[in-house]
Here is the input.
Amino acid sequence: MAQIRSVLVTGASRGIGEAIAKALGRAGWFVFAAARSKERCDEVAREIVKAGGRAEGLALDVGDVTSLTHALDRLKDRELALDGLVNNAGIAISAPLVHPSEDLVEKHLRVNFHGPRRLIEAFLPEMKRQKFGRIVNVASSAGLRGYKYVSAYCASKHALVGYSRAAADELAESGVSIACVCPHYVDSPMTDASVKRLVEKTKRNESDARALLAAQNPGGCLVTVEAVADAVVDLMGEGRNGWIVELDGSASRVIEKR
Here is the structure.
């Protein structure tokens, strides 16, 4: 009988994370769908089970150390060694370069970088011991280049990509792989929020605002959540250590591999 591998997916209550959780469920992983909304994660888990997979909802705020500790304790209670980790949860708040609140930068780093880093450090020792582990960080094209009015977001995603590059070198030959997916604008709730801000600031209608964001993708259209999920499943399944996959709205492009 084939071994059931377990994976924790953060930010799994909606959008990209939900798509990733469901895709991994279809691929045979036991999925812990985690996010701040336990109720919504339980719903996602039920949908995975209904489709023939195995899943469980988990409350987790990656930017809160106490919440992270409680989630880790919950996983220990289940007595399941975690084989995979998808760090997807994140925030993106726009602001001018010189912003009156220093907490804006700290909050982005806390959620987008330190949250994933803490989870990796929590699970990595056991993954190395068992000589098997799959880690995928959902970063962004903002981890590869800069964008106006989101310097804090870009800084946090650059940190995540840089950390992943260093970790991939250190983990070579260990049986544990770490990779990044870097999508441009995705047709997701996060982009919906960006569209809303554009409508408010520019007085464009929603359709025009969405088209403006899509036009900024090299492929000329928004990346689908399914495309991101497919890239994650591939990286997890093949254990592609050190890969950085950019999704630009037309096709995936591997821009780096160890």
Remarks:
- The chain has a mean pLDDT of 92.
- Residues 6-185+225-242 form a domain with the Rossmann fold fold (CATH 3.40.50.720).
- Residues 103-130 form the longest helix (28 residues).
- DSSP finds eight helices and eight strands in the chain.
